[in-house]
Each structure stands twice: as structure tokens, then as C-alpha cells.
Specification:
- InterPro entries: HPr-like_sf.
- Helix 1 (17-29) packs across helix 2 (48-57).
- The protein has a 5-stranded antiparallel sheet with strand order 3-2-4-1-5, with helices on one face.
- The chain has 3 helices and 5 strands.
- It starts with a strand and ends in an 8-residue tail after the last strand.
- Strand 2 and strand 3 (41-44) form a beta hairpin.
- The chain has one domain: Histidine-containing Protein, Chain: A.
- With 107 residues, the protein is of the alpha+beta class.
- The protein is 32% helix and 39% strand.
């Protein structure tokens, strides 16, 4: 069964290029879709150019939402959230919705 989970983190400092590449590589390895959302802008984390452009615009003290869609997403979300702990502090992790069909939807 597909599910969607999200985690809100508070960005404490700007992302380094090394950290951006780590986020990209982690998102590419996950079986599912990873989105980052902040200030009414969203980006799929598996597109390196879009991810870098997006993370360069994220200011300190801004809330960043990590959204994961797929199967068994909780450990994957924990992994991505842990990856961001140097640059951000975790505000909350929340299960958003369960999807019973094999189809996905666009956010």
C-alpha cells in the first residue's frame, strides 16, 4: 500500500553544496518520490539542478517540509530527516494519508 508522510524541519543555516548532494543522492536511492516544500514552492529532490536552485533560496529560520510518497516511507523519512539535522531542527513528523490504489497523484 502506498502512503504519504511528511516531516517539518526548521532550517538553522544555509545548505552547503556537499549537503545538497547528500540529499540528492539519498532521494535517488529511495523507492518512492521525495518532495521538498517551502514558501509555496515545491521541488522533486531527484532533480539535482532544481534541488540546488531551491535549497539556495531557503533562508535560515524557514520551515522546510519533506514529503515522501511510496511504500514503507517512515524509515526513509527518518533517514532524510536525520540527514538534515546539522542544518535544521525537526519540528514534527506526521502521517498525512494512505493511498489504497496503485496510482499516484500530483501535489
Amino acid at each position: 500500500m502506498k502512503e504519504i508522510m511528511s516531516s517539518n524541519v526548521m532550517v538553522q543555516k544555509r545548505f552547503t553544496m556537499k549537503k545538497m548532494l547528500e540529499i540528492y543522492q539519498a532521494a535517488k536511492k529511495l523507492d518512492g518520490t521525495t518532495y521538498l516544500y517551502s514558501r509555496q514552492k515545491a521541488v522533486e529532490a531527484t532533480s539535482l539542478s532544481k534541488l540546488v536552485s531551491f535549497l539556495l533560496t531557503v533562508e535560515p529560520n524557514t520551515t522546510l517540509k519533506i514529503i515522501l510518497e511510496g511504500t514503507d516511507v517512515e524509515p526513509k523519512l527518518n533517514q532524510l530527516t536525520k540527514l538534515l539535522t546539522n542544518e535544521a531542527s525537526v519540528l514534527r513528523v506526521k502521517r498525512k494519508r494512505l493511498i489504497e490504489s496503485s496510482e499516484s497523484f500530483q501535489i
